[in-house]
């Protein structure tokens, strides 16, 4: 096992970043340095011989968010057999992560080393109280410790799955794009009586879907991928979605994560 892991993560409401930190802390206990890099960012163009790549993301429609899928597909081909660890967080079911991404990475020359899903509190329907969420997170913390131990001891697995799941992953991704962009994504708006024009929602958006209008208020375009960052972390609780009436607001926030921690790397230098 290499002694250094570069963990590229995307987190919407904080669950995946929290799980990534738990994993990094556990790997450190086994003498393996783990550095976290927020997505979106450029794909690594210089793969180090002594490093392992890890990728962490929340599950949308049984697979990764579309822009994360695109990032994984854009990884450069390699002959170095770079090990890859995959981490996903979810509240329900994920059937199109382990198999399809195994084949994508293998085809590019990577070595799929380990994959693990962590059950976390739900984002859309945060029906659980704080005590229930705490129990879920404690179980996830224990699972992260077990996962790190397996990797450090060379006992981790990423079983290959039938390649017929690959087209299903593409279908699920396309379905999500149409659902997020074509319907739900167009329902966001800011209450002008509450909005302070701070622009934080614009900086939080991982796919540049929110623009500032001529009067300074945010406006949503057609690229939304339903990460819920804008509606969850608006400092003024000014954002809602006309087409998501059953979702409670303000939404779930991982209690140990600051919204500043979620900013894409390109946004951290902005005022």
Topology:
Blueprint: E1 4-9, H1 15-29, E2 33-38, E3 51-58, H2 66-73, E4 83-90, H3 98-107, E5 111-119, H4 130-152, H5 165-182, E6 188-190, H6 200-204, E7 210-212, E8 218-220, H7 229-233, E9 239-241
Parallel strand pairs: 1-2, 1-3, 3-4, 4-5
Antiparallel strand pairs: 6-9, 7-8
Characterise this structure.
The chain is of the alpha/beta class. Helices cover 31% and strands 18% of the residues. It folds into two domains: 4-169, Flavodoxin domain (Rossmann fold, 3-Layer(aba) Sandwich); 183-266, 2-Layer Sandwich (Alpha-Beta Plaits), CATH 3.30.70. Helix 1 links the parallel strand 1 and strand 2 (33-38).
Q: What's the CATH first level of the largest domain?
A: Alpha Beta
Largest sheet: 5 strands, parallel
The geometry reads as: globular
CATH fold group of the largest domain:
Rossmann fold
| Proportion of helical residues | 25-40%
Strand content: 15-25%
Our count of helices gives 7
Which structural category fits the helices and strands?
A: alpha/beta
Briefly summarize what is shown.
The mean pLDDT is 87. It is built from seven helices and nine strands, in the order βαββαβαβααβαββαβ.
Name a few traits of the molecule.
two-stranded antiparallel sheet; 31% helix; 7 helices; Rossmann fold; Alpha-Beta Plaits; five-stranded parallel β-sheet; 271 residues; alpha/beta
